[in-house]
Specification:
35% of the residues lie in helices and 14% in strands. The protein is of the alpha/beta class. Among the domains are: 247 residues, Type I PLP-dependent aspartate aminotransferase-like (Major domain) (Aspartate Aminotransferase, domain 2); 58 residues, no CATH class. Helix 2 packs across helix 8, helix 3 crosses helix 4 and helix 5 runs parallel beside helix 6. The longest helix is centred in the C-terminal third of the chain and has 38 residues.
Length: 504
């Protein structure tokens, strides 16, 4: 199995975050985000499709069939449009599973342990175990030494991995970086575990210096650690070897810690990237999880969770109703998902995934360069295909391209289905929107933008706690340098877009 360079050969190999000057401002807490109210327990959609009872006569039934067909046709058209403008979330939309349509007539359910037969015969365990064996080879663990199953989503993989850690060490403390996926902290709440949040480096990677301080403060209790193989927002990869080294230096022997690796997206990409931290069960890790609907491209949410056989007995129990054993979290599990995963793994293989990883990394660097050339601050971790940049102030643009945002930053996740043409369309539209917003806002602020031959399109997110806004984002525009802090604050106060200020 060959690996590809994390950085395209024409680049110098440095992590592309050195001149990313945007100070990240966390989103405001409360019931509103960017003017959009979030209400739990209420339908916030503008429309919903009502379910009505069918009529008794056949003629009305025919009318209803026609109505439902038209609804589905419109929905399909909407899906095609939304798929066309999809960049903010890690889903590989480049797939064709037409050959599997023949199986949609069956209720395939993988109840219980995938390695043990059940009384329920309409299952796909043979496909599931084949997929698990493939990932076991990828992460270097023998068939006789692992246990795993195909989950309903990436969150379930994290819930299971952390649950195994908690069962191995009932009094253990969960350590996770602040940029870990929210499901990690959900697990801590569900299992009523003590949880310590560890600080991060600017890249989003776990800060092992802070990790060591917090380990030493709890030396009397075992450690359960979540290691990110690609953080949600910045795509940062925690240094697994350094995490293990930090544990050992802090006096934690291997029988006093459990490591779960959250590889939701990059868990399948890292094995094909040169110089990437190697995720392998030859190291003292307890479990690894990865999503199946992200890089693999399964059309339904699913994931893979693998742990050591020695750990699973603490969870497994007999289920007489199934004539089987069960150590999974959910009861019924989608039996179609393993077939979709098996089909893709067979079609692509290691070489196919290697090519897709190479494509994603190249296109991610292309996007980062295009954004910077347009005067937009952008960041790209060396091992990542997640490009982070200044959050657009136009919320319609954010929704159109389905961008994932946090505070004053947004990101694009470059997946195999994302083409150069789509990235060009995105950047061109972004630059146009920023220019339009800049002109409107500059008129409101009575700033003349016509006397610059080549005005930058930078739309700045200002952290008002700092004195020099131009240093925050690396903007070199003379008006940004000469404007006083009071002027900037006054302009922002008059700006209904809150802390966003545009200067051209």
């Amino acid at each position: 199995m060959e690996a590809v360079d994390a950085v395209p050969v024409h680049l110098n190999g440095k992590v592309a975050i050195e001149d990313f000057d945007l100070t990240v401002v966390e989103a405001e807490s409360g019931d509103k985000q960017n003017g959009r109210e979030i209400v739990l327990g209420r339908n916030v959609h503008t429309t919903c499709l009502e379910v009505t009872e069918p009529e008794a006569n056949d003629e009305s039934t025919g009318d209803k069939e026609a109505y439902m067909a038209s609804v589905l046709a419109r929905y399909r058209k909407n899906l095609m449009e939304r798929t066309k403008h999809h960049l903010g979330y890690p889903y590989n939309l480049d797939f064709d599973y037409g050959a599997l349509g023949q199986l949609q007539h069956f209720s395939i359910n993988n109840l219980g342990d995938p390695f043990i037969e059940s009384n329920y015969g309409v299952h796909s365990r043979q496909f599931e175990v084949g997929v698990l064996d493939w990932f076991a080879r990828l992460w270097e663990i023998e068939k006789s030494e692992y246990w795993g199953y195909i989950t309903n989503c990436g969150t379930e993989g994290n819930l299971h991995g952390i649950l195994v850690g908690r069962e191995v060490f009932p009094d253990g403390i969960l350590y996770a970086s602040r940029e870990s996926h929210y499901s990690v902290f959900k697990a801590a709440r569900m299992y009523r575990m003590g949880c310590v949040k560890v600080d991060c480096l600017v890249s989003g990677e776990i800060d092992c210096a802070d990790f060591k301080v917090k380990l030493l403060a709890n030396k009397d209790k075992p450690a359960i650690i979540n290691v990110n193989i690609g953080t949600t927002v910045k795509g940062a990869v925690d240094d697994l070897d350094l995490v293990i080294q930090t544990l050992e230096e802090s006096g934690f022997s291997q029988d006093r810690f459990y490591i779960h690796c959250d590889g939701a997206l990059f868990g399948l990409m890292m094995p094909f990237v040169k110089r990437a931290p190697k995720v392998t069960f030859k190291k003292p890790i307890g479990s690894v999880s990865v999503s199946g609907h992200k890089f693999v491209g399964c059309p339904m949410p699913c994931g893979v969770q693998i742990t050591r056989m020695e750990h699973i007995n603490v969870l497994s129990s007999n289920v007489e109703y199934l004539a089987s054993r069960d150590a999974t979290i959910m009861g019924s599990r989608n039996g179609h998902a393993p077939i979709f995963l098996w089909y893709t793994l067979n079609r692509k293989g290691y070489k196919g995934f290697q090519k897709e990883v190479q494509k994603c990394l190249r296109n991610a660097y292309y996007l980062k360069d295009r954004l910077r050339d347009a005067g937009i601050s952008a960041m790209l971790n060396e091992l990542s295909s997640t490009v982070v940049f200044e959050r657009p102030i136009d919320e319609d643009f954010v929704r159109r391209w389905q961008l994932a945002c946090q505070g004053n930053i947004a990101h694009v996740v470059v997946m195999p289905s994302v083409t150069i043409e789509k990235l060009d369309d995105f950047v061109n539209e972004l630059v146009e929107k920023r220019s339009t917003c800049a002109i409107v806002l500059s008129r409101n602020q009575q700033i003349d933008v016509t006397d610059h031959r080549k005005p930058p399109s930078a739309v700045l997110a200002i952290d008002f706690r700092l004195q020099k806004p131009h240093q925050i984002l690396g903007c070199h525009h003379p008006r940004c340098h000469t404007a006083s802090r009071r002027q900037l604050l006054h302009a922002a106060d008059r700006n209904p877009l809150q802390n966003h200020l545009s200067l051209q």
